[in-house]
Amino acid sequence: MIESIQIKNFKSVVDLNLELGSFNVLIGENGCGKSNILEAIAFGAAANADKLDHEFLGSRGIRLTNPEFMVSAFKKNKSKKAIEIEFRTESYDYDYQIVNDLNNQKKWINKNKDLANSEMKNFFKKFFINIDENSKKDFLGVSESELHSLNLVSEAIQPYHADPEFKKFVSQMFPEIMKNISSNSKISDFIIYSPEQSSLRKFDETTQIYPLGVKGEGVFQYLKEIAFENKNKKILDQIKSNLQLLDWYENFELPENLLSNEYALKIKDKYINSTLNLFDQRSTNEGFLYLLFYSTLFISKSTPSFFAIDNVDASFNPKLCMELTKNLAFLAKKHKKQTIVTTQNPAILDGLNLKDENQRLFVVSRNVEGHTRVERINYNENRSMRLSEIWTKGFIGGLPENF
């Protein structure tokens, strides 16, 4: 699990540390920096994947803009500093310093990668090519036995030093080693999902990312893919069952006679006469489409294990919002997903169980200088009001103060 993320010099975030659980909720007024936090994480994930070009950044949910607007540009921070993102996991820290490529404004460079490559080459030269045993020992402080092992390797490759193929191998080896050391698939797969009704309703829309795109594209293709494979029946049954949060919903099915280019989902309303035909995705309400997307996202083994949802409350009744929070927190734990969601709907908070360390609430705001900051709201056994009331009454902040 990602234990914490530190962000420096990204948009409105100058210096911020976020300690995460498995299900995390961000609240705050419009423009306080909630989406900037998510984008900074996605930016760091792109560095982790070594894909800092506009095409990749856009497909991950980042709002692309000119480089000067990506780096914090406050009055007291005029110097061009690197964007810094650090992910801390249980076993390893992944640290990135990202600057714009002067030769290509639509590309960014991870400075740490270049530095690490240089250090790796220096290490290789000192231990496997340099024959001075004292410098080897001083460089790392290795023991006599470890030095002996290093010398054996050094002696074995010494005859190949002048071989052009050996030099070519060495030059290709370092980037591959650094890629393996500095990359983590949980981080690099991070996506910010902002599903839109128009994309969810067009079930024939394809996606650049498998199986679900940032706007909800691809959900039907994925359901169609798993519907007729016995090994995936359990996943489909869980997705169907999760839709029981909707009172009217009874079932959905995919017609077996669909051609490869045909797209249809047949939905059953339990209140409609059983003799009538099932209706399709074009006729259903948007709440069903959003819940279908979230169910697929959290239950599928093919979706990222670490992701964000911007404005998770879209199209849901307040009471359903409360149950949705409980449901998604449960699914995150069950299916080993870690997620960050943003919301403007107080009812989302009433589904949180702050006694559970894996469920966390953060209030996002901006200080007197305009910098984005976060404050975690911990469980308090003396609270008598619901979290929704505590928020709307202004006791934990996160509300506009200019009117």
Describe the SSE topology.
Elements: E1 2-10, E2 13-19, E3 23-27, H1 34-48, H2 54-59, H3 67-70, E4 83-89, E5 93-101, E6 104-110, H4 111-129, H5 133-140, H6 144-157, H7 164-182, H8 185-188, E7 192-193, H9 197-201, H10 219-227, H11 233-242, E8 249-253, E9 266-269, H12 286-299, E10 306-309, H13 318-334, E11 338-342, E12 359-366, E13 372-377, H14 387-392
Parallel strand pairs: 3-11, 3-12, 7-10, 10-11
Antiparallel strand pairs: 1-2, 1-4, 4-5, 5-6, 8-9, 12-13
Helix pairs in contact: 4-7, 11-12
By DSSP, the count of extended strands is 13
Which residues sit in consecutive blocks of at least 5 with pLDDT less than 50? none
Order of helices and strands: EEEHHHEEEHHHHHEHHHEEHEHEEEH
Enumerate how many helices there are, as a single number: 14
**Mean pLDDT reading:** 86
Q: Oligomeric form of this entry? A: single chain
Shape: globular
Strand order of the largest sheet: 7-10-11-3-12-13
How much helix, percentage-wise, in residues? 25-40%
Which class do the helix and strand fractions yield?
alpha/beta
What is the distance, rounded to the nearest whole angstrom, between the alpha carbons of the first and last residues? 40 Å
Structural Rg:
25 Å
The major sheet is characterized as: 6 strands, mixed
Classify the beta-strand content into a percent band. Answer: 15-25%
Polypeptide structure, described:
This protein is an alpha/beta fold and 403 residues long. The chain is 37% helix and 19% strand. It has helices at 34-48, 54-59, 67-70, 111-129, 133-140, 144-157, 164-182, 185-188, 197-201, 219-227, 233-242, 286-299, 318-334, 387-392; strands spanning 2-10, 13-19, 23-27, 83-89, 93-101, 104-110, 192-193, 249-253, 266-269, 306-309, 338-342, 359-366, 372-377. A 6-stranded mixed sheet has the order 7-10-11-3-12-13. Strands 2-1-4-5-6 form a 5-stranded antiparallel sheet. A two-stranded antiparallel sheet has the order 8-9. Strand 1 (2-10) and strand 2 form a beta hairpin. Helix 4 packs across helix 7 (164-182) and helix 11 packs across helix 12. The longest helix has 19 residues, at 111-129. It is globular, with a radius of gyration of 25 Å. The two termini are 40 Å apart.
